[in-house]
Design brief:
mainly alpha, 9 helices, elongated
Amino acid sequence: MASKLIIPIFILFIIFYGILKKIDIYESFLNGAKEGLITCFNIFPSILAMVFAVNIFLNSNFLSTAFSFLTPILSKFNLPLDIIPMALLRPISGTASLSIMNDIFSKFGPDSFVGLLASTIQGSTDTTIYVLALYFSSVKITKIRHALFNGLFADLIGIIASFIVVGLLF
């Protein structure tokens, strides 16, 4: 019940705060919406290109061929080869890993073991390299060696924990 009231209360708070500060709320809203649309317009080509490139890469069967030596090991644990590219691309690109997860959902279904594993990996890891590149460069930090190692190590632990937890629970 309370969760349904939080957003309307927050909006009313913003409106009353704007009235108290004598801010043109409607004009501010329009400016924010305009800036949001400009931002969407600016990042859309990059996202489209990434999804397009990942789909071409996945449909080329390069990853299946490159990781085919892992098939005997993965078959012992009842894991398809499709989960490995997602686990490897997750620290690099969230969009690429989402595209791979969507492909996994299309092939196996979201409620399948592989779908649950992909979802768990997606939720227990982060796009470490993207985060370091974006946030560290914005504050002009150039020495990222330890942060990179710790971030990738945390991603590795998250991936391993995802395999263990999903394997035990499902």
